[in-house]
Design goal:
Layout: H1 2-10, H2 12-31, H3 33-61, H4 63-80, E1 85-88, E2 99-102, E3 104-114, E4 120-125, E5 138-140, E6 145-152, E7 157-164, E8 169-173, E9 179-183, E10 191-198, E11 208-211, E12 223-231, E13 238-245, E14 254-260, H5 263-278
Helix pairs in contact: 2-3
Length: 279
Amino acid sequence: MRNLITFVWRNYFFFLFLLLEVFCIYLVVQNNYFQRASFINSSNNVSAKILKTSADVEEYFYLKSENEKLARENAELRSRSLVSFSMLVDDKFQVSDTVYRQKYTYTSCKVVNNSTSRRNNFLTLDKGSNHGVKNNMAVITSTGVVGQVKDVSENFCTVMSLLNSKTTISSKIKKDGSYGPLTWDGADYRFGTLHDIPTHVRLAKGDTVVTSAYSRTFPENIMVGFVESFERKAGDYFYTVQVRLSTEFKKVSHVYIVTNMHKEEQEELEKRTEVDGKE
């Protein structure tokens, strides 16, 4: 405090000059219409810019929470969409009012770890058994397929990415329904390979590839990618199709875990049928 008083005393001429300058500016602005209007307009512009900058900074710091909120809302909307329901038809008769029962539910998750440059790539998500996650559940984004849940702990799970040599997803050409297994050859994270497409199918670059109805894990018609090229090797009766994947794996941040509510029932029935067939 003593140093401050000494500083002001030594420079009181300068501070007095500033005080008089401010007072003069006040008198000019207060007693002249043009100067007063100019000052008000200038101050409003400065205030507006400061407020806009402050709002932009505040909005930036809230982006994380907003993204998480949107992910939760999207998961809820997906769970309510008709794609997530299967139609109920009575065994004896069918009425004009169609009734649906829910088949799929969606849980939003954040990606906490991800790899794309290995032969067998994995992701780690921030949801686990405490959130109802189980092995082999499907994982997707708003743009397409990601992979399947591999291992689960209480609060985390790992996902075997589509970019994994052990991943196979039943996919189809959307325009005509021709289906086959889609795999990844380990070369380029942007492309997958669709096998066993009959040569009578009229393929074209840009054709849409989606998941088929023969997957126990993935809902039907989830985006996989687009036909990039195709070839028929000598002696083959099928095309090998290069597919440009719709999911940008290097940018994945939020995903959805898909629960097939009828999967266990279907698996149990098919296993029972297989056992009966061996007898």
